Amino acid sequence: MKIKIKICGIIDHYSMSTISNLNVDYVGLVFFEKSPRNITIDKAKLLIKYLSNKTKVVALTVNANDQFLKNIVTNLSPDFLQLHGEESPYRCFDIKKKFKTKIIKAISAKSSKILNVELNKYKFVADEIIIDSPKDHLPGGNGKTFNWKLLKKGKKNINWLLAGGINLSNVSKAIKITKTRGLDISSGVETSKGVKSPKLIRSFVNKCRNI
Fold first, then answer.
1. Per DSSP, what are the bridge partners of residue 162?
2. Phi, psi of 181 (to 5 degrees)
3. Which residue, of 28, 38, 122, 174, is most buried by count of CB atoms within 10 Å of its CB?
């Protein structure tokens, strides 16, 4: 079974070229000022030029307004908008309809009960769901794992990716426990906050493809 891979928070063309050469499934570009991985729309335009057609572009936003989303969609035509804030199911639906784009919604795994409520809320509107660690000072990319055993049951009919503190040393265990078919990684392929390592990206992707 092929695991889908999303590498999030790319800010340089070396990492983008590596992702392109490896035909990674999704690449995430972060449009959130408080993030160390934040980039401008102009920078994103340049980075996308390094991509092959096989990799889908995901534009990550946090509680963004329509004007900002319109700017992103008009300039970049991303394959997905990732909503990583407090966007309600109605807001997700509204964005999907207005901008005619697929939606990835990130939700936090606080407890089994809360997780199931959230999944049921968003599963009909989101094309993919990212299950992440509970939010820290930033909505994502904090490099912290959560109790993967929460994910043991009840997500059979949902397209979802596992996020939160995944790296080379724990990815096999993460897949084994959660049975996920998709992984979303950011800080796990960085040498310091926001600085991606093409070497780590290559090692991570190769490892996932050989599990």
1. 131, 183
2. -105, 5
3. 28
